């Protein structure tokens, strides 16, 4: 969404270069020309949608929270709303209340996001999971702070190219948004190292086998042999003396 918003601003810069000077005139002057108001509004709405998407993604990815970062991010969102609702001056020689509010919103917009990125990068450097993303976010914050400061200086130094510096500051803000979006996307798709993962769940049978002591089969009590049952005849034969057949008398020759 931020990339599309930047593409819209770039298209307006090229398409309306004959009416709005990229060197001197502010970006909001596109809203005073035919077709420019709609495209300018769409670009701001896309940035607001990107802000909402980043807030949701940060919560889902468990981005480390910092009260100062949250406050600065909210100020950046509020600055976008102010710039959208209150129109700039039609001419520098004809200041209006709406134009003054518009300029104040722009100042908040250009200052808050780079400061939020700087603070967040310092916070991420202390987190092992997010440490790799801190340098890119820090570079975007530095670019945003430098270009925003240069644009602010152009408000009081007449010979500085205010229009060009504003577009540079706006580009730095787009880069910060894209960098943060890429960081959150990678965090959502990249698994944590095995040492940081919780113990893997095991099946109930495996859990019982590993947690409970093994139950060996109980030893059966020694069996005592009982004399085999005998039939009555066999009992009598065994208990009573054997009766041998009577010996026949020898015949006398």
Structural class: mainly alpha
Q: For the report, how would you describe the main beta sheet?
A: none
Using DSSP, what is the number of strands?
Answer: 0
- Average pLDDT reading: 80
Number of helices: 8
Q: How many domains make up the 3D coordinates? A: 1
Strand content bin: under 5%
Task: Pick out the low-confidence regions.
Answer: 192-220, 223-253
**What overall form do the CA principal axes indicate?**
elongated
**Percentage of helical residues?**
55-70%
- What series of H and E elements makes up the topology? HHHHHHHH
**Rg (CA only):** 44 Å
- Kindly report how far apart the N and C termini lie: 143 Å
